[in-house]
Amino acid sequence: MRAILLILIIAVVALIAAVQIGLVDFRQTRALTPPTVRAADGKIITQPGRAPAFDVETGSIGVGTRDTRVPVPSIEVKRSEESVRLPSVEVREPAPAPALDNRVDSAR
Q: Which residues pair with 54 in a beta bridge?
């Protein structure tokens, strides 16, 4: 509820600002005519009203590009070689297993 109220307040403030700086111009072209109700000869006679009409003119905003010169910092990168110690990994294969002797023990 607070968010809706805040958005409504911001919209009203933006509309007031737009009117004040001349970005939006409202002109009423037809006045409000309220409905009429009267009683005559035991009958009720009504006539509809008319809503007001407005002519709204809005300003325009031009968006485009143009060329200009601005100072831009430049960065220079220099490479040099230094000696550093890096970790190393060595992979060794396992030692071959001794061959099994398939002889049957005769002492059994």
A: 28
